[in-house]
Amino acid sequence: MKILVINCGSSSIKYQLLDMRSEEDYSLLAKGNLEKIGLPDSKITHKPTGKDPLVKVGPVADHTEGMKVVLDALTDKVSGVIANFEEIDAVGHRIVQGADFFNGPALVDEEVMEKIQICCDFAPLHNPAHILGIRAMQAVLPSVPQVVVFDTAFHQTMKPEAYMYALPYEYYEKYRVRRYGAHGTSHKYVSQRAIQFAGLDPENSRIITCHIGNGSSVTAVKNGKCFDTSMGFTPLEGMIMGTRCGCIDASLVPYIQKKENMTPDEMTAMMNKKSGFLGLSGKTSDMRDILGFAAEGDERSQLAVRKLILDITKLIGQYIAEMCGVDLIVFTAGIAENNPWLPVNICEHFKYMGLKMAWEMENKCKKSVEFYKECQASVKAHEVKDEAYISAPDSAVKVAMIPTNEELMIAIDTMRLATK
Question: pTM of the full predicted structure?
């Protein structure tokens, strides 16, 4: 069964085409990214498995035209991987926000589309683009079943005391104000793989999954279900991220607005796009560059690194307390997968539990330039490319690195629904 996985942004279409023979037996046929939709220099980078990449630059007016560009790349005589559109059996779409309407994937119909539209209020940068992608694919492949997979669905198993804010209850009833979380597709995939990898009992397991990238969240997974998560009503809540501030005193919002004469929209943009690593360092939102500046002695970049370590440490500690212990801590996503110094420095705080890492940082002074240089050196020296334990064999609590694969999770969910 050939499944096309689509992730639409406001001006982009990321995609993968997978041949799903079963949930365990599959192959990636091609992946790619169409950028700058609506501009004269739109660019598609198409990467077919076993063939040379295809790169084309030219105007793409909208997402409907963009979907045709993607399908043309997939059927290209030289770089294509299928003979025609009819080989595509189903399409799976990533949707950021499904609120409490959805606790799992859904086949697209007009009722589903109406609910995704309502959720645009909660994810104004993402859901409108997802709708464009679904409508575009309906226009191009009208007879092919479409499945939507929600980033928020995995977190619907949280208890009310975990997802409710202590605001007047009427705001929940009137406006659906509550915590929804994000990265749920990643946390679901990684926690399921973690159970299989570690040989845990799905009905008796306590896992903490740390999705650490430009956007980051930490989730407590108890007995295979989300117990608590760090992101809230929007992906702004939680820990420091590339350009997001994470948790702050809510009173800071009107205080800064008044001092800086900002509108609500300007304040929201500042917290989402000008804060985090970028805001603290004043230089960049990219952790690779942050670490480089820190190793050169830049104190604000060093501060950003230390805050990242502390924020994740506090969340893990919180979830250990909530679940009355932990069996496995998992790190995943771009920053975590490519910076082995990060889990090492986080997990040293849990030595009191008998947690031992496979290797330790030599320099214990977190403010020294030598420490950040050691972090840089560890990136290649302790690189992990596949699923692996990074804790010591005799560690009382296991720690693992498991690369995430949200596209595969979407393909699996799509296959399950489309074949019913």
Answer: 0.91
